[in-house]
Description:
The protein has 133 residues and is α+β, with helices and mostly antiparallel strands. Helices cover 32% and strands 27% of the residues. The chain is built from 3 helices and 6 strands, in the order βββαββααβ. The strands form 2 sheets. A 3-stranded antiparallel beta sheet has the order 1-2-3, with no helix packed on it. A 3-stranded mixed beta sheet has the order 4-5-6, with helices on one face. It starts with 12 loop residues before the first strand and ends with a strand. The model has no long low-confidence stretch (mean pLDDT 96).
Amino acid sequence: MADFPILYTTQAVNADGITGQAYVPAGLAVPVSSPLSATEGTNPEQLVGLALSTCLNATLAAIEAEHHYPHQSTVVTTVQLSRDRFGYQFWVDAQVTIPTVDATTAARWLALAESRCPVAKLLGASATVKIHL
Length: 133
């Protein structure tokens, strides 16, 4: 458990597997399906991409505000699914754009965002995750 006070707790529930529905109690509910089928629905790849893009860009927005810049950053995360020796794996590529600052400042802000964003901290140590300008 964390050494710091818990600020927020949520749950995500999936009882159906890759075809059916996943939900957050008293909140979001989404149909889920395999990205390898024609069935309509959200898949884990999309959810991972949304989680990283949203968390990282929200963190960058806070950093921009700390430096008195308007929010201009964009994070486009591509998630690819491939087979490996044991089943499947994700390849994640997060492309960050901060158009209002020079490259040195953008790199510094991105490094700071990666150290603050919980999703980037969770995924960033993986050899199959790349976060870059």
